[in-house]
Every structure is written in C-alpha cells, then in structure tokens.
Amino acid sequence: MKVSIILITYNQSGFIEQSLDSIAMQMGDMELEIIVADDCSADNTFDLIQSYPLPARFKFILLPRHSNLGFVKNYQRAFAACTGDYIAVMEGDDYWTDPRRLKKHVDFLAKHPLCVLTMNRYMMRNEFSNRYIVEEWASTAAFEFVTGAEMAFENRLGNMSACVFRKSETEKLKPDLFDLPVADWMFGMVLCEYGNIAILNEVMSVYRIHKSGQWSRLNVQEQLKKMNELIDQYDQYLEYEYHHEFSLHKKRINKVEENVIHPRKNLPGQANIFGRIKNKIYKFTL
Fold it and tell me: Which residues pair with residue 145 across a beta bridge?
C-alpha cells in the first residue's frame, strides 16, 4: 500500500521543519512519497526541505519551480503527480500530532470502501494570542459521516492538512474545478458526489493561524465578504443542487457580520457577546 503526501509550501520557512518532523514520525507498513509543491517561495523554505534528513522509508519528489502558480493551480499539479493509493495533505505551516495518524486514516478507508475522504479533528493554534482551540465533538461515536447538504450548510472540513483522500476519487475531479478559488470545502463538496466523507473523532493535527496565512491574514470583514462570494461561485458550479443549504449558510454569515462588524450599541453584556462571537468566527468562516 502506498501513500502520497502532498507538501504545499510558500514562504513558510519558520514553520516547515515542524511540518516535516510530523511527517517523518509517521509509523506503519506503508510505502510513502512526499510530493513537494513549493510555489516559488522567496525565502529558504525550499532549501530547508531539500536539506531535511528524511528517513529512508520516505521519498521526496520535487516538482518544478518555474513560476508562481497560485494556491489552487499548485494543488492541481500536486494531485496529478501523486502515485499512491491514498493522498494525505500537509500545508507548510501546519503539522500532525499523532505518529499513527496516516495509518489510522488508511485503515479506516480500507474498511469503508464507499468513503472517498476522511478528516480528523484538529486544533487551531492562534499565533496572535498563543491559544489553542478545539471544536467540540457532540457525539460519543468514533466517527461520523457527512453529506453534501451538511457540507453546504456548514463547512465541516476547514483544513486540508487534516484530510486524506482516496486517489481514485481525486482522479474524477474535473479540470475546470481548479479554475475556481477552491480549498478544503469545495473539494469536499465535489467528492460528496462520489461517496461518503468521514470525520474521525481523534484530534491528530494542528492548523496554524498566523499573519501570513492564506486565510487568516484577512480581517474578519474580508473573510465574511469572501465567504459570501465563494458560496455564490460554488452554488453555481454545483448547479444549485444545495442552493437551500448554501442560502442558510449565507444568512448565518450575514448574521455574524451584523454582530461582529456592526454590533448594536448600549446593549447589556455587548462586550461579552462580541468576544464570544469573535472567538467563534473561524467556525463560521472556515
């Protein structure tokens, strides 16, 4: 059994070694390749990757660095380069926390042939406040399946580095999908057309929120505006199959904007309410 690990990087020299350490510690009887898709970093991210003392059981495959492709096209070429049965993702500012993470995902996918994608729960590490946030798990089950409608109503993925794909299903992704500003949410939405998505209860990775992040560098107002734009584009691409759920999602986003961007004045406890909403903003926007 072979697992491809997509390593997506761009100017992440301050974080990349921790990402690589968490890859190198993975255990299990799997053949492993690391597809390095560096999007022409201007810092020494690529040099650090090349010089990393990778264990013998791993193999680096360095993709060409001719020009800056952008986030989505970089993913497109990385998926195409994978030769494994399964594809894990590591973005260069994230890291995994469980040495058996890959094996747990692969074992689950092997036991559930109708499942196209798995995701583990993750911690959000806020570099601004040095706090860790873990989303609550209401169920007592070890995992739960998510439908396309549930994904449209609320993005249940939120972080590519927490995902493992079945390679045969990613081959069904149409090239025009990569003309959209897609990431974890839209990949999940499209793959729901081919099978189940499973979310595993265990917290096995960390998503880092920092000033240079693709999403976290935006302020709250920019994030909410971007989310509304993405929903409209995704809704159209999916031929309005989940229009009702997307509409509810937009209403929720607009409600958050009303409370966070334009809070009412002179209401008792307004400051506390604002704080709680601000702390949860990533659940709505991610």
Answer: 198
Least confident of 48-52, 62-66, 239-243: 62-66
Query: What's the DSSP call for residue 114?
Result: T
**Nearest CA-CA partner of 22 in 34, 30, 38:** 34
pLDDT digits (tens, 9 = 90+) for 189-198: 999 999 999 9
Question: Alpha-carbon distance 195 to 114, whole Å?
Answer: 6
Query: Measured between alpha carbons, how far is 128 from 209 in angstroms, rounded to an integer?
Result: 8
Owner of token pair 């249940």: 156
Which tokens sit at 234?
A: 């995704």
Q: Quote the CA–CA distance of 217 and 213 in Å, as a whole number.
A: 5
Q: How far apart are CA 148 and CA 189, in angstroms?
A: 6
Write the CB contacts of 57 (distance below 8 Å, at least 6 apart in sequence): 31, 32
Rounded Cα–Cα distance for residues 186 and 95 (Å): 22
Rounded Cα–Cα distance for residues 141 and 170 (Å): 27
Per-residue pLDDT band at 260 (split at 50, 70, 90): low
- pLDDT tens for each residue of 60-102: 999 998 888 999 999 999 999 999 999 999 999 999 999 999 9
Smallest CA-to-CA distance from 109 within 203, 192, 188, 196 is with 196
Calpha distance 124→132 (Å, rounded)? 6
Amino acid identity at 214? Q
Task: Give the pLDDT confidence score for residue 179 in this predicted structure.
Answer: 95
Q: Which two tokens stand for residue 153?
A: 């109503």
